[in-house]
């Protein structure tokens, strides 16, 4: 999707400044035109899980907490949104980069009434990439009325506050390689 010259950009200089200062920013409407397509993709993904899928359920727990990633190449709805949304443009603007490379898609479906809590965590160790120019988009497909995503704002030692773990775990994560073949996207101008 290309932005017309008369339409205001989704990512403003205020967004960029906030992101660079805090490492997190709210960009409303980035996937607004793609919600139904994404819902169809999630339904397809849940009916036909990929090799990395997990139900994240323990005996005696209620509800479903489905988790899967790296499916954009086999789920046409995901690929369509990756290629037609303004995600590459938004990431490019926030990072100050001319190119954007998709690392992976990640679907999390936590149905109402699910008893399993989502533990506090940092996404950094799961991203087998280094550097400052890393953006993650959280895109709920259902209305969100209370804060279900919480972030730690700020930076430490020039890196995002939630960065790779120190010590023995850091070595283990640094030896892993990406498992997805990912396109390099050139933002539309």
List the helices and strands and how they pair.
Layout: H1 13-22, H2 35-47, E1 65-69, H3 76-84, H4 87-95, E2 100-101, E3 106-110, E4 155-156, E5 159-160, H5 168-174, E6 184-185
Antiparallel strand pairs: 1-3, 2-6, 4-5
Helix pairs in contact: 2-3
Shape: globular
Give, in order, the helices and strands. HHEHHEEEEHE
**Mean pLDDT, nearest integer?**
77
Q: How many strands appear in the DSSP assignment?
A: 6
Largest sheet: 2 strands, antiparallel
Indicate the structural class: alpha+beta
Using the CA coordinates, give the radius of gyration.
17 Å
Overall helicity:
25-40%
Strand content of the residues, in percent?
5-15%
- Please tally the helical runs, counting DSSP H or I stretches of 4 or more residues: 5
| Unreliable spans | 1-6, 156-186
Distance between the termini: 10 Å
Q: What does this molecule look like?
A:
The chain is α+β, with helices and mostly antiparallel strands and 189 residues long. The chain is built from five helices and six strands. The chain has helices spanning 13-22, 35-47, 76-84, 87-95, 168-174; strands at residues 65-69, 100-101, 106-110, 155-156, 159-160, 184-185. The protein has a two-stranded antiparallel ribbon. A two-stranded antiparallel ribbon has the order 2-6. Helix 2 (35-47) packs antiparallel against helix 3. It is globular. The N and C termini lie close together (10 Å). The relative contact order is 0.19. Residues 1-6 and 156-186 have low confidence and may be disordered.
């Amino acid at each position: 999707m290309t932005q017309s010259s008369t339409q205001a950009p989704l990512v403003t200089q205020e967004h960029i400044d906030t992101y660079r200062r805090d490492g997190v920013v709210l960009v409303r409407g980035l996937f607004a035109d793609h919600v139904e397509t994404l819902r169809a993709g999630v339904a397809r993904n849940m009916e036909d899980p990929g090799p990395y899928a997990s139900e994240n359920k323990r005996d005696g727990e209620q509800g479903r907490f489905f988790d899967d990633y790296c499916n954009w190449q086999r789920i046409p709805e995901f690929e369509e949104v990756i290629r037609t949304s303004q995600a590459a443009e938004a990431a490019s603007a926030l990072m100050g980069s001319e190119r954007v490379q998709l690392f992976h898609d990640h679907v999390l479906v936590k149905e109402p009434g699910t008893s399993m809590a989502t533990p506090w965590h940092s996404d950094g160790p799961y991203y087998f990439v280094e550097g400052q120019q890393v953006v993650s988009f959280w895109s709920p497909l259902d209305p969100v009325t209370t804060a279900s995503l919480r972030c730690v704002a700020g930076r430490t030692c020039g890196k995002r506050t939630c960065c790779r773990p120190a010590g023995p775990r850091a070595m283990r994560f640094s030896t892993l390689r990406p498992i997805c073949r990912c396109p390099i996207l050139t933002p539309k101008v």
